[in-house]
Amino acid sequence: MGDMEKLPTYRHPRRLLAAGLVAGLLANSWFVEGPLGIGFFLFASGFVVALRLLGGREGWQRAGAAKLFLIPMLLCAGFVAIRDAKSLTCLNVVTATGLACLTARLFAGEQKLWRLKMGGYLKETLAGAASAFTAAPIVLSQSVDAGQAVESARKFGWPVVRAAAFAVPVLIVFGGLLASADPIFSKVVTSNLAALFSADLASFLSSALVVAGVGLLCTGLWAIANRRADTREVWPVPPSRQPRWVVESFGIVGSLLLLFGAFSVIQAACLFGHVALPAHLTWAEYARQGFFQLLWVAGLALVLISALNRGAAFPAHLKNPFSVMCTGLIALTLLILASAVKRITLYEEAYGFTEDRLYSHVFAFALAAMLAWRAVTLWSLPQTFATGSVASLIGFVLALNVLNPDAFIAERNLQRDDVDRHHLSTLSADAAPAIAAMAAAPAFRSVLELRSRNAQGRLSGGWASFNCARWAALSRTP
């Protein structure tokens, strides 16, 4: 709870609370009744505008490089109004929300981006969400004078109760007489009372939870982003580290160099036909299997190299040799990753594209970027590895949005002789333009009609649910 101890009294707590209430009401209006669309982008844009207005010029300048995370946050929020694929929408919402929590946490300028490790980014993101929900009650308590509220309740509470006790019977008597005198008035009163008492309690409670949850989250995020904490950097001088895990680190990396090197040699031998395959495998089957295992190998190798460079302590004369070995291991890992990409490419050519295959395919390139940056940071700017890795992960999400997975899958699969129409029918409205090009065939016309009906079914929620892909699917209805 050290961060809560740093939190000073917030400036303008009532403004923070009012802004949070508005955010909660907008979220309930724009997010609950229908699918997410342009309303989510407008909400994210409003979050940034409120962050700037509530903090003022000083807070905006103090944020420094943390403001850069607002750019991909808005991009991900914007793609919610462009792409319709549910998995991609979920990825965009999670990424945008996580970046909002991370930005709010870093906005006070206490943490420098290049000093954060990978675990530090995750910790700061989770701490941002947690701190928001703990800071919001402080803002609430500062907005309301508890003593004055209790005194007002004592002063006006009993008179209000007595007034209601007398007014309700009077209203019942006179309302009954008027209703019996005029059938139209009776119908209006009866229908309104029926609607009032038949109101869905569960719906009311869910709306209240959305307003309270989103309102408290936004209030807390704005509060911690504009806190007046000590921004002086006092970094203790790290003590000199005695050599540790030297032999173990060299042994692990050296053994992996031999293993990865042998694997690469065998791959090259297979490529030139110098190795006989097992009897039950053809060359095509051999080339198409093992992608996910190789992807795990590359990811675990990256984690291991990072852990050894962080946890081990080397004498000065052994640091560079170990970096050379790690660089060589990264180079072999990139070769293995290239083999994995080749395998998934052949697999997609043989059996077609699916969402899982395409997402993994794109992630392989993000992992390659992280490996390459790890090699660079072994020799220069070691403190920036985590920032570069986070940038690669953000790039992975944005690349998927630019690629438009469902449209890409539909376009490539429609070029095949054995088109899986059932799989096409499961794709989102993003695939409608590609399917429309084949709508002259009766089979594909039925698929397009199904896409259009699904898009029509996802139009509830009013203008806030507007989505470019769903609109395009409806406009292409045969």
Task: Give the arrangement of secondary structure elements.
Elements: H1 2-6, H2 13-31, H3 38-63, H4 70-80, H5 86-106, H6 118-143, H7 146-181, H8 183-197, H9 201-225, H10 246-271, H11 283-288, H12 291-311, H13 316-351, H14 355-377, H15 385-403, H16 405-414, H17 421-425, H18 432-436, H19 442-457, H20 468-475
Helix pairs in contact: 2-3, 2-6, 2-9, 3-4, 4-5, 4-15, 5-6, 5-9, 5-15, 6-9, 6-15, 7-8, 10-13, 12-13, 12-14, 13-14, 14-15, 19-20
Short description:
With 478 residues, the chain is an all-alpha fold. The protein is 75% helix and 0% strand.
Share of helix, binned: over 70%
Element order: H for helix, E for strand: HHHHHHHHHHHHHHHHHHHH
Count of DSSP-assigned helices: 20
Inertia-based shape:
flat
**What Rg do the Cα atoms give?**
30 Å
Give the oligomer, counting copies of the same chain as homo and different chains as hetero: single chain
User: Mind describing the biggest β-sheet?
Assistant: none
Please describe what this structure looks like.
By secondary structure, this protein is mainly α. The chain has 3 domains: 2-145 and 200-225, no CATH class; 246-383; 410-475, no CATH class. It contains 20 helices and no strands. The chain has helices at residues 2-6, 13-31, 38-63, 70-80, 86-106, 118-143, 146-181, 183-197, 201-225, 246-271, 283-288, 291-311, 316-351, 355-377, 385-403, 405-414, 421-425, 432-436, 442-457, 468-475. The chain starts with a helix and ends with a helix. Mean pLDDT is 79; it is low at 1-8 and 230-237.
